[in-house]
């Protein structure tokens, strides 16, 4: 998997311009929060559940009530761990960070049960552009539009160029919210459903 030189990781120096700095900061902060939850709180809860399991092994075998109480606490900790992972994924999906836009969109489409044709290369576009593009498409998938959606992406100069076909015209707002704060643009063509073309400058 390659990384385009002009589209380095979103943790790099933000691009010039107040609007783009604001957009870059949004995705940088979301990604940072995801890492803190995943590498901090979630790991501590997981370690605590393991320690509680070790404590359970030392309990008297005939103390049924105490065993049940420890089992209940372990179940609660596992539930908290799943909630933390869910919150972290909502902030910035781990697969998007690890594997890029294409795999993350495939996972989201499968989770939503929405028919999607994806044409997204393996090369990376930077965390900022990928985050903005991912959440714009994910918002459309969450609405479960009728028919099959086509999503195509490639690098065009210093931008991630994204084309989405088969969504309602109103969904263009999702893409404007993601692209315009970064200094990008959104065009809408066709009837309804429409084809949305969005440019996301690589961070």
From TrEMBL:
Region (Disordered): 1-24
Matching Gene3D superfamilies: 1.20.5.1930
UniProt lineage: Bacteria, Bacillati, Actinomycetota, Actinomycetes, Pseudonocardiales
A single MF term (Gene Ontology): phosphorelay sensor kinase activity
A Pfam cross-reference name: HisKA_3
Domain Signal transduction histidine kinase subgroup 3 dimerisation and phosphoacceptor: 30-95
Name this protein carries in UniProt: Histidine kinase
Bias (Basic and acidic residues) ranges: 1-11
GO cellular component: membrane
Keywords on record: Kinase, Transferase
């Amino acid at each position: 998997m390659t990384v385009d030189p002009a589209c380095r990781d979103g943790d790099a120096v933000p691009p010039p311009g107040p609007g783009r700095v604001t957009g870059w900061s949004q995705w940088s902060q979301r990604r940072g929060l995801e890492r803190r939850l995943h590498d901090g709180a979630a790991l501590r809860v997981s370690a605590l559940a393991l320690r509680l399991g070790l404590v359970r092994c030392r309990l008297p075998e005939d103390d049924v009530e105490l065993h049940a109480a420890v089992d209940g606490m372990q179940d609660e900790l596992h539930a908290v761990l799943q909630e933390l992972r869910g919150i972290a994924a909502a902030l910035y999906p781990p697969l998007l960070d690890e594997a890029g836009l294409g795999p993350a969109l495939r996972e989201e489409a499968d989770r939503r049960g929405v028919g999607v044709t994806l044409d997204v290369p393996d090369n990376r576009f930077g965390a900022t552009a990928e985050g903005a593009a991912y959440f714009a498409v994910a918002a459309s998938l969450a609405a479960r539009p009728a028919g099959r959606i086509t999503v195509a992406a490639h690098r065009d100069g210093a931008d991630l160029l994204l084309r989405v076909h088969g969504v309602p015209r109103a969904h263009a707002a999702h893409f404007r919210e993601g692209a315009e704060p970064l200094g990008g643009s959104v065009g809408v063509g066709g009837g309804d459903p429409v084809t949305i073309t969005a440019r996301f400058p690589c961070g």
